[in-house]
Amino acid sequence: MSMKTRMVAEYGSAAMRKPISRGELYEALDALVEAANARKAEIADLKAELAKVKAAPIRYRGVYQRADTYRAGAVVTDGGSAWHAHRDIAAGERPGRSESWVLMVKCGRDGKDAK
User: Fold this and answer.
1) Which helix (H) or strand (E) holds 99?
2) Strands, E, within 19-100: which ranges?
3) Among 41, 74, 93, 96, which lies 20 to 30 A Cα-Cα from 22?
4) Which of 99, 104, 101, 62 is nearest to 82 (CA)?
5) Residue 33 CB neighbour total at 10 angstroms
6) In terms of CATH architecture, what is 59-105?
7) Residue 4's Cα: distance from chain center in Å?
8) What is the rounded distance in angstroms from the CA atom of residue 15 to the CA atom of residue 68?
9) pLDDT tens digits, residue range 3-33?
10) Whether 32 contacts 38, CB under 8 Å
11) Measured between alpha carbons, how far is 29 from 80 in angstroms, rounded to an integer?
């Protein structure tokens, strides 16, 4: 949808035909610049987060060990589920009980022996 179509829908076609003052134009431009700057900040934050993800490759560390520390990107299994560390984790922060761990694969039901 074009900007004109959205503005007509929001303000009506009569309002769109009315001339605006220089002050109103500057106010509208200021609002646009403010919105653009907010988007730039959001994009910068997302780029920084993406850089962190790229810098921390996924590494399988085996079964969770309470005494171990884990770096961002570590993957462990605990209780049959796989957990990913999205930041560095101190010893004793157990998967499922700490916000530092993200569940990757949930444990399924036990299988039955084929007969």
Assistant:
1) none
2) 59-63, 74-78, 81-85
3) 41
4) 104
5) 10
6) Ribbon (2.10)
7) 32
8) 66
9) 778 778 888 888 778 888 888 889 889 999 9
10) no
11) 56
Mean pLDDT score across all residues of the chain? 88
How many CB atoms are closer than 10 A to CB 84?
19
| H/E run at residue 102 | strand 101-105
Find the length of the chain: 115
- DSSP code for 54: H
Alpha-carbon distance of 61 to 57, in angstroms, equals 12
> Are 58 and 75 contacting, i.e. CB atoms less than 8 angstroms apart?
yes
CA distances for 42 relative to 27, 37, 39, angstroms: 23, 9, 5
pTM of the model: 0.51
Cβ-based burial of 76 (10 A; exposed 0-12, middle 13-18, buried ≥19) = buried
